[in-house]
Amino acid sequence: MSDPLVRDALRLIHDIVIEAKGSALDREALRRVEQVLQRAMGPGVAAQLDTGYSRREATILFADLRGFSAIAVAYAPEVVLSVLSRYFGCLSEIAVDHYGTIDKFIGDAIMVVFYGEAAVQHDHARRAILCAVEMQMAMKELREKDRAQDLPEIFVGIGVSTGTVMAGLIGSRVYRAFTVIGEDVNLAARIEAFALRGQVLMSETTYEHCRGFVEAGEPMEVYVKGRSEELRIREALAIPELGKAVPRQEVRKGPRVEVDLPLQYQAVSGKAVEPLARTGRLHDVGYHGALAEFEAPLPAYSEIKLAFDLPGLNRRAQDIYARVVSIRKRHGRHLVGLEFTAVPADTAGEIRLFVQMCIQDKN
Q: Which one, of 127, 340, 144, lies nearest residue 247 by Cα?
């Protein structure tokens, strides 16, 4: 019940010790200090928490596993659970190392809260961004190990937002949990939905808190549900002073071949695939993405599910999920750059073979 408060106090004590002594407490010392703080959180504090909510400044981080649904279908349950446990275990340890509070697991996503303190202004936003960058670095290392063992590779998209939240207990005597609610919690989740695999996206408020600490991309304007005006977001690229950078995903530099193929696609809203199937045409296709033409416009960073035939292989590539990464208009139609976010393993192999066959046919 008091874990978030204890964790904040433990972080401040740890920082004071480092500043005074020049070295950090070891794990056993940290555990003993935490026990003292837990005992100090007596009945009076617990009763205060029971009475309502406190308003606090915080930075919220959402990290979502990309393409996990396709992996869950393609691999045995014990493999899926083992991989999921390792990835979530890694993300959790990094979050705790940066004094983040793991609020909850939501399906294949994790929500972490970094609480602010008046004495250390903007520290929570910097810890959250550093945590996000290190999460992506750790994911790259795990993927390299999994690739060597022929295990499914998992990518993560991360969204971060900073603002004022309401923190308190929600539930009843049967079950209750300490959590946070507020607009910036929702915004963090919306921003995460725009993140491509391997990306860290943050709100403009988070960026302002981290200006001079984080290297960021140019601002992007996106529409999010529940807001009438556009939201400005930025991509976090690196923490220069610490020599840490988000590993770049160079998937768009793979080979592409020109094609002229009909395709079918369905819009994806949240986790649901809309039943209405629309048509378009593929102009080029590669291992990890494609250029398609549609009559109707598609929002930037929206997700679709698509299917198309692979001539020469007598196969149909389907159950492919893709994110809209670029849009331009030509002769009244819309050219859309797509990055595949989830492809069944057998389909990925067939697309790779199809591209290689086309390359050879042209030479």
A: 144
